[in-house]
Every structure is written in structure tokens, then in C-alpha cells.
Amino acid sequence: MLLKRLMMIAGFIMSILGCAGAPHPPLEVVPSVDLSRYVGRWYEIASFPTWFQKGCVESTAEYRLRPDGDIDVLNQCRKGPDGALDSASGRAWVTDPATNAKLQVQFFWPFRGDYWIIDLGRDYDYAVVGHPSRDYLWILSRAPQMDAGRYERVLERLRQQGYDVSRLVRTRPPG
To answer: Distance between CA 67 and CA 76 in Å, rounded?
Structure first.
């Protein structure tokens, strides 16, 4: 089971590194991220379907600051409506200290991927994580559900950034 999980994660990271989508202007990140406010639990509201999250519902991400300044990552979901809890642990680190909005995440050495914060609520109540290729996208919230008006405003900003929001799939929340 562990080897299968590691191979899936390695394949994901390799697919990120090899992505070459349609030409777009460079992806813009938020001007500044206070990592001490960003850490904690996030609920996935919607995402682009990925093979490594196939069958996932009730997806969450938990981030914790490490003493060395890096971030411990714990992604969890249920595999199917009544399925077992599945999890993946990793590490993230800032690659753009001017903003703290560009990070790398690694679940399996030596593979890593870009984790760019491209939208963030003023109160850190929601975040949008993208990838420069625009092939990966996650809308996250501190609450298991997001207000419909806010969701539509997030979608509009994503369209302006060149994302095909028709690819987004809403994630079934806990409960």
C-alpha cells in the first residue's frame, strides 16, 4: 500500500513538472502571505480533477509551521462517501520570500511541485492555490462550505487569470 501511494505521488509530481498548457501571461500570485495566519486547517471547496484525488470526498489540508520555517503538510480525504480516510504527508517551503505566495511542496523525494497562492481572503477565510501551468487548481476555505456569492467572485478572478473554470468540480463537504 505504501509503495503504491509513493508511486502515485511520484507520478503526480512528474506530471506537474512536465506540464505544458496553452500559452498564458505569467500567473499572478497574491502580494503577500503571512504564513502564521495561513497555517491551520483548510477544506477543499472545489478543484480540477486529478488522478491522485480520484474518488476523494471531504478533502482537507492541514498546514503547520516547523521550527526551521518550512511547513508540514497533511492532506486527507475519504475515498468514496463511506470510505476509509486516506492521507498524504509532505513538506512545503517558500521559494519567493518577497511574497511568501510561491511555495514548493514535496510528498516524495526527489519530486516536488509548485504551490502558488493566487487568491486569498483578507481574513484568511479562503485561499486559491494554483500552478503556473494552470493545469492544477484548488479552492480552499476555513469552513466546509463557501458562500455562493464569494465562490462566483473567486471564479471571475480565476477567469481573468486564464483558468478554464468549467473544469472545476465541487468537493463534497464533511457531514
So the answer is: 23
Length of the chain in residues, anyone? Answer: 175
User: Residue 86 and residue 78: Cα distance in Å, rounded?
Assistant: 6
Q: In three state form, how does the secondary structure of 48-110 look?
A: CCCHHHCCEEEEEEEEEECCCCCEEEEEEEEECCCCCEEEEEEEEEECCCCCCCEEEEEEECC
Q: What is the pTM of this model?
A: 0.85
Q: How many domains does the chain have?
A: 1
Residue 160 sits in a domain whose CATH number is: 2.40.128.20
Q: CA 87, 90, 93, 95 torsion: positive or negative?
A: negative
Domain range for 64 is 2-170
The verdict on residue 13 lying in a domain is: yes
- For residue 115, tell me if it sits in a domain: yes
Instruction: Please report whether residue 175 resides in a domain.
Output: no
Neighbours of 39 (CB within 10 A): 16
**Per-residue pLDDT tens for 54-98?**
888 999 999 999 999 999 999 999 987 788 899 999 999 999 999
**Contact (CB, 8 A) for 102 and 116:** yes
